[in-house]
């Protein structure tokens, strides 16, 4: 059970600043289990090898640093984060609507791996059938996130700016951030990045229009994270435009059990799952 007064304080900060940091949402021991599982998954290891090949060729493969899947309803280890009551109940309070796990990602930011240009997530989600900037991220640190290894950095109050134009970056990158001239104008007006260093188990919850990014990992330490992307019931994708087949809203059972070593034996999510239009909920 989450404390109501704490939730109210977090809610005010979330809507004021565009993000809130919840320290120790999960334990270090839980994140150690998640890290062991990530290291075992062949598809994730193959992705890291591919990233290093791309970077050696001069590419900036930011999007490829995230391993994404849409299977959010299974009983796998990662669901213990994505469907945790600590996330779903918290955000349902912030948004005054039922929140569900929309899809999940592991950020494979090993030493030498590139970061993300400054961007807003809703710049992408609006093209996938979501009408409002309520599809947004919960960044959960699996490793310690430091300035040296490319911790997340956010621009406070940037969620109040609306969705800004994106593009205009190097053609050798896979991510299009906020237009550089837009960023320059914002910084001239006093907006600035706030780096958020995090310990394993800390969570950063931020709005779909909050500008954020990260530097390259120039250290010898990994910065693995899980990003659980959340959405609200009222923002369930329009099935006519849900091109990547992201999950539609459904009332998700909250997970209350901690992550343990026994969860390493659970089946993996179906990484290739795509949700069909006929899975969309009937409007009420």
The gist of it:
This protein is an alpha+beta fold and 284 residues long.
Characterise the protein shown here.
With 284 residues, the protein is of the alpha+beta class. The protein contains seven helices and nine strands; from the N terminus they run H-E-H-H-E-H-H-E-H-E-E-H-E-E-E-E. The strands form two sheets. Strands 1-7-4-9-3-2 form a six-stranded antiparallel beta sheet. The model has no long low-confidence stretch (mean pLDDT 95). GO terms for molecular function: dioxygenase activity. InterPro entries: Phytyl_CoA_dOase-like (IPR008775).
**How would you characterize the largest beta sheet?**
6 strands, antiparallel
Q: How would you sum up the global shape? A: globular
Q: Helix proportion of residues, in percent? A: 10-25%
Tell me the strand order in the biggest sheet: 1-7-4-9-3-2
Low-pLDDT regions: none
* Elements, N to C (H/E): HEHHEHHEHEEHEEEE
Report strand %.
Answer: 15-25%
- Report the count of strand segments: 9
Structural class of the secondary structure composition? Answer: alpha+beta
| Chain-averaged pLDDT | 95
Kindly report the oligomeric state of this protein: single chain
Distance between the termini: 29 Å
SS field, number of helical segments: 7
Radius of gyration: 18 Å
Keywords: Dioxygenase, Oxidoreductase
Cofactor: Fe(2+)
InterPro entries: Phytyl_CoA_dOase-like (IPR008775)
GO molecular function: dioxygenase activity
